[in-house]
What we know:
By secondary structure, the chain is of the alpha/beta class. 37% of the residues lie in helices and 19% in strands. The protein folds into two domains: 2-245 and 459-473, Glycogen Phosphorylase B (Rossmann fold, 3-Layer(aba) Sandwich); 265-453, Rossmann fold (3-Layer(aba) Sandwich). Strands 3-4-5-2-1-6-7-10-11 form a nine-stranded mixed sheet, with helices on both faces. The chain starts with a strand and ends with a helix.
Amino acid sequence: MEIIHVAAECYPVAKAGGLGDVVGSLPKYQAELGHVAKVVMPMYRTKFLYTHQWELVHEGSQYLGSHWFHYSVIKEKTNKLGFDLYLIDINGLLDREKIYGYDDDTERFIAFQIAFCDWISRWSHLPDVIHCHDHHTGLIPFMMKHCYAFRFKLANIPSVFTVHNGQYQGWIGWDKYYYIPGYDSWNWGLLDWNNTINPMASAVKCAWKVTTVSHSYLDELKHSANGLENLFEYEKGKSIGVLNGIDTEVWDPQTDSFLIKNYDKELVDKGKKKNKKEICGQFGLDEDKPLIAFIGRLVGEKAADLLPEAISQSIYQHHGKANFLVLGSGEPYLEEQLDHMKHQFNGYFNSYIGYSEPLSHMIYAGSDFLLMPSRVEPCGLNQMYALRYGTVPMVRSVGGLKDTIRDFGDKEGFGIRFDQPSVGDITYSVGRALDLYNNKQDLYQWMRGYMMTIDHSWDSSAQQYIDLYQSLKN
Length: 474
């Protein structure tokens, strides 16, 4: 099969979160299964663009409302990512360093989607399926089916839409309706939700199949989807949950070049000790105490607003018997609070405000526990990375965290789960972590025998997607 993935992110080209990790690995595993997998994304001005070789494969022009724009499509020459990578460039719109965060993001991503549909409609052959990821590509299923300029060529190509995060839907005021290429006005309802053009809602309505990134998240969207609950309930017949995987070549403590010392499950105690010593030395923490880390965006969705009080309470209640480290960026007030805490709890807490891929690998390897108190977690990849590196996940029972982590108190458990995103549940879980850490020999034995052997690779999930695509061709 020939599969085209369309997304705003793809690691290592440009990444803001888990979406980038998924789009950077799923196509590779599909290619390894013998299929032709391609990724199409905007041509941001990132380091990857300037350090790789490219060839121009197409140039074209289209309208964004009354604005006539030129676009070009380039292809990465070496195929080093394991799949064909294409970038669409539109001068004045996509030629930016950052992925998101501009006042004209609406115009940027609508133009990207128009350029994509225009390019595909000019192919001499047609792909077997177009797989769109999140709201930045949510208008493509509608354009393929209903826009006059594209429907003749694209209407019969199966489309799949994956919801990576239902909280962000790409809302567009109807005052900008003219940005979307011409279509029969009878179909305006396929764009609308609550008197707004809603790209995510449109994709759920128009795509042939809808997937979410875990089974539990599909169920949760019927009750908590930022206003789309009734839609997900209505479209449940064409929806399926497929759990994300991780790229086990990138995330492998035996070969990870970012680590001070590589290790496997047999050497997990020695390997983690070396990496922990490095991390604790770098951040002024005590390597003899358990290290509890948080890696992620400092936003309410991740319950990061609870971190300052939860960490403070944990240090006081447990008499400073654990150290805490935070890596992330987000809400400015949270960044400021965490920065202030570095001085208040010197020797017990530290933080790195920002994001560093090398540092994140070191923290997974050097930490004893990874805290994920999320209010919303469609799938979560961090807990899978943690298990791979012999780090115990401490997670709230929500979404993909519930699907991937079993509590130590249950049969064959391998993590710490709690019910509420609250300071009380977090501090209680820290106490449980201290109890586990005090029996380190048993803990390392469990890591060797089970935790680090759990298969969260893309192999199974990639095949599930292939089966889904093939069902659309029958």
